[in-house]
Design goal:
With 864 residues, the chain is of the alpha+beta class. Among the domains are: 110 residues, 2-Layer Sandwich (Zincin-like); 128 residues, Neutral Protease Domain 2 (Neutral Protease, domain 2, Orthogonal Bundle); 95 residues, Immunoglobulin-like; 172 residues, Zincin-like fold, CATH 1.25.50. It is built from 27 helices and 31 strands. The strands form 8 sheets. An 8-stranded mixed beta sheet has the order 6-5-9-3-2-12-15-14, with no helix packed on it. Helix 5 packs across helix 6 and helix 16 packs parallel to helix 18. It is globular and about 85 Å long. It binds O-methyl-L-tyrosine (0A1) and zinc ion.
């Protein structure tokens, strides 16, 4: 035996066996034809009986079932109770030895007991405010019963629920309902992660939908009593989603009933369980007094997202969890397109790209960078990331650009035709595009398998009527991935004349080489290029310093709204970065914003986006990308100074705009009044720098809707005069959990950096800080971490406070603790002092005894 070699071989073995690898995939050796589940609900001792019809696909295979935290009461094969010697139980499951199994189809029966009231991790069957609910994606079903809990094992479910709750729901169609008992049959085979059960004292807001083939579908949104008055918007959004999926993708709903349930304790946003979507109540309930315009827009988008999963995720699912972006990237792409169609397309695109840069580019620049399709993980819950979701959606958008709108529709038709009812891979997905378009997508596939954001450098030249654009692409190394091959990048380009007219129609250039030139002939003047229109690829565009683009010109003239906004953002970033290093506000930027404010033709929502300055985190990222270490205090001051300069220069115009954009009449969440409000509030934010918060206080006092009330509250807090408004708001809303979440968050994001920590320390003492509720925990902690200079205090006290709370949450809810640990993912950006303080907190987390697998993987990856 080898000893004393500097590491513990046993530990290494465990480490390696904990890592799951794509290359290890093996099909399951049994087909699960049918499963019957009988639940007898009890908070402390729920009985779950499962009967599964299993057909062996390979001779003499042992039967492996996943199972965690279950008390096994019975196990039988074809009615014969197994002897203890015929199976092996462990912490993670159960293996029935091959000798105990018949060679032909057999019935496996198990009975287990679980305790939903003790389930604080909110995975599997748990309780929220006295109501039973489930969350099974990704691997929660194994906490309900012994089962092959993997997405490629699909079965028809027949579920009976017995319990004393008035409403008992599961997937599929109801086949029997009586007091204390309900039976549900789902005719569509599905993986266990789509199973759901809900039981409680709920009321429904109901409606119906007639599908394109004339079938009537009952629609219900189930909520706690009292919340039914806040469901109308979500129900209408659901109907719009159903219509859109029929019209745009030809996809019809496939059950007689579609249920949505709102729960207050939920780790994520929502979940697409077949026929029984479960939502974080935050993303269902809306009323003008309690929800903001952006809440309404998000609710519509999330309702659509979960509904669209019915085809992209449920009818066609993933073979294994490495393929998660197959369902998520496509479904995000679909919900983004839906919102773009329901609202203002270009504004939606700008919002999506801003979110992509804020979350995914940030992730890709740091130690957590991973490919949209990772090839290994320890805990799959850690891979529900911006890269899998948002970058996954960008990849679908690029495919659409490469094959065109009709080519995309043809490919999707083929995808549904070929793969309906299957569990698929990224290879299957790309193959339908190859087969339907005739294109070779082998190089394109690197977008799925390679991590990192490509940097695209551009230079240009004009001679004798010929204009040349030369691009160079480079993707930096990322954890575990060294040199990267060139990607296939669609670059949408326009050329403008010196008066701002389009000289050509937008052209998609296809870059496939590390360095590549594109030539435009027959031009009478040197054009102004508009590159990467609509953000046609998720890359960082860098201009050759010899010929920087005339951003002010593009901001004034570009016919592509995305690139117009982008030019303004580039100017804002350039000037604020210079100011953070001691420079002054760039007069050409200040003038360009003045012109925009006075340009009555621009859409208000678009204008509002142009007036919003980049966040402090984005400025820090820009400095880091430019090779400088960001100073959070200097960034905060520079951003404030730039806003003050804009307000001083354009006070009259901003004030006039603020008055002109007041919306009269009762509140409507529609895009047009919402756009006006957003412009009005963007003006308010700038004016706050010079009016001491007076306008914001007046608006706070007068507002009849949450959009204005909350924005005004943020501004008075930021102006340092918010205490009275915070108290008023708390008095008014203390009984409303969703509104109180906003109260916790806004005072931390908006407060002066040097007060953020003391405020957070005070807020954790507030009796309303129910830290076991994920929404409340996130509101306070993410609100604090979003106060960039407050979180990054140079004494490290912000980091310590945050890490202490992660460690406190981890034993109860590892999933949320792990997700929120990403506040530390940017450590490498900062100066050595902050780096070592952040790393020290990560090391303290990593070394904590009994740490969850979730948080342990995250802290280890961040430490590198
Ligand atoms: N599939 C859901 C997201 C989701 C993932 C995991 C969850 O619990 C661990 C819950 C929801 C979606 O994309 O909406
Ligand atoms: Zn999803």
């Amino acid at each position: 035996m080898l000893t004393n070699i500097g590491f513990n071989p046993e530990e290494i073995m465990t480490q390696n066996t904990l890592t799951k690898r794509l290359s290890d995939y093996q099909p399951y050796p049994f087909e699960l034809e049918m499963v019957r589940l009988d639940f007898r609900l009890d908070p402390d001792a729920t009985q779950v009986r499962a009967r599964m019809a299993m057909r062996p696909l390979r001779a003499a295979s042992a039967l492996e079932l996943d199972g965690e935290g279950l008390v096994l009461r019975k196990i039988a094969v074809d009615g014969r109770v197994l002897a203890a010697s015929e199976y092996t139980q462990s912490d993670t499951g159960l293996v029935i030895h091959a000798a105990a199994l018949p060679a032909q189809t057999f019935t496996l029966e198990t009975e287990v007991e679980i305790a939903p009231a003790a389930n604080t991790a909110l995975e599997g069957l748990y309780m929220s405010n006295g109501m039973y609910c489930t969350q099974c994606e990704a691997e929660g079903f194994r906490k309900i019963t012994y089962y092959p809990d993997r997405p490629d094992v699909m079965a028809r479910f027949h579920v009976t629920v017995a319990g004393d709750a008035p409403v008992l729901l599961s997937n599929g169609n109801p086949v029997a309902q009586e007091t204390g008992r309900a039976e549900w049959v789902d005719p569509w085979p599905k993986p266990a992660y789509l199973f759901a059960l809900v039981a409680g004292d709920l009321v429904a807001h109901s409606g119906s939908f007639t599908t394109m083939s004339g079938r009537e579908v009952a629609l219900n949104i189930w909520v706690r009593k009292g919340d039914e008055t806040r469901c109308a918007f979500a129900l209408e959004a659901l109907k719009r989603s159903m219509t859109w999926d029929e019209q745009v993708y030809g996809r019809e709903y496939d059950l007689d009933i579609f249920n949505i349930v709102a729960v207050d304790d939920f780790n994520m946003g929502a979940m697409e369980n077949k026929g029984l979507n479960i939502f974080n109540s935050k993303w269902v309930l809306a009323s003008p007094e309690t929800a903001t315009d952006s809440d309404y827009e998000r609710i519509e988008g999330i309702i659509a997202h979960e509904y669209f999963h019915n085809w992209t995720g449920n009818r066609i699912t993933c073979r294994d969890w490495f393929q998660l972006c197959l369902k998520e990237g496509l479904t995000v792409y679909r919900d983004q397109s839906f919102t773009a169609d329901m609202r203002l397309g270009p504004v939606k695109r700008i919002e999506d790209v801003s979110a992509l840069r804020a979350r995914q580019f940030r992730e890709d620049r740091g130690p957590l960078s991973h490919p949209p399709r990772p090839d290994h993980y320890k805990e799959i819950n850690n891979f529900y990331t911006a890269t899998v979701y948002e970058k996954g959606a960008e990849i679908v958008g690029m495919l659409r650009q490469l094959v065109g709108p009709q080519g995309y529709r043809d490919a999707l038709d083929l995808y549904f035709e070929r793969h309906d009812g299957q569990a698929c891979t990224i290879e299957d997905w790309l193959k339908v595009f190859e087969d339907s378009s005739g294109r070779d997508l082998r190089q394109f596939k690197h977008w799925y398998t390679d991590a990192g954001t490509p940097r695209l450098q551009v230079s240009d030249d004009f001679k004798d009527g010929t204009y040349t654009l030369e691009f160079t692409q480079k993707t930096d190394q990322t954890p575990g991935q060294g040199d990267k091959p060139a990607r296939h990048i669609p670059i949408a380009v326009g050329l403008l004349s010196d008066t701002g007219a389009d000289l050509i129609e937008t052209k998609i250039l296809e870059m496939t080489e590390p360095r590549q030139s594109f030539v435009f002939e027959g031009l009478s003047q040197r054009p102004v290029p508009s590159i990467l229109r609509g953000f046609s690829a998720p890359v960082v565009l860098e201009f050759d310093t010899g010929h920087p683009p005339d951003s002010a010109f593009l901001l004034a003239h570009d016919s592509d709204p995305f690139n117009r906004w982008e030019a303004g953002r580039r100017l804002a970033l350039q000037t604020v970065v210079a100011m953070a290093q001691g420079g002054a506000a760039d007069p050409s930027y200040v003038a360009a914003i003045g012109a925009l404010i006075k340009d009555g033709a621009a859409d208000p929502a678009f204008c509002a986006l142009c007036l919003a300055l980049p966040s402090e985190d984005q400025i820090a990222q820009a400095l880091h990308e430019a090779g400088k270490s960001p100073d959070p205090v200097a960034i905060h001051r520079a951003r404030e100074a730039l806003a003050t300069a804009l307000a001083n220069a354009h006070e009259d115009a901003l004030s006039a705009l603020y008055d002109a954009m007041a919306v009269s009449g009762p509140y409507r969440p529609d895009p047009e009044p919402a756009g006006q409000r957003s412009l009005r509030l963007a003006a308010l934010a700038l004016l706050r720098r010079i009016d001491g918060g007076a306008r914001a206080q007046a608006l706070f006092d007068a507002a009849d809707n949450m959009t204005e009330s909350l924005a005004a509250l943020g501004q008075v807090v930021a102006a340092g005069v918010g205490e009275a408004a915070l108290a008023t708001f708390r008095d008014r809303w203390q009984g409303d959990r969703l509104v109180m979440d906003k109260w916790f968050a806004i005072q931390l994001t908006a407060s002066a950096p040097d007060q953020a920590l003391s405020r957070a320390e005070k807020l954790v003492q507030d009796p309303l800080f129910d830290w076991k509720n994920p929404n409340r925990f996130r509101s306070l902690m993410s609100g604090f971490a979003a106060n960039h200079a407050g979180f990054h205090r140079v004494d490290g006290a912000g980091y310590r406070f945050y890490a202490d709370w992660l460690l406190r949450l981890d034993p109860l809810n590892p999933q949320v603790a792990a997700r929120m640990s990403t506040a530390f993912e940017t450590w490498a950006r900062y100066d050595l002092t902050r780096q070592s303080l952040m790393r020290a907190e990560l090391a303290r987390i990593a070394q904590t005894e009994g740490l969850s697998r979730d948080l342990s993987e995250m802290s280890a990856r961040m430490l590198g």
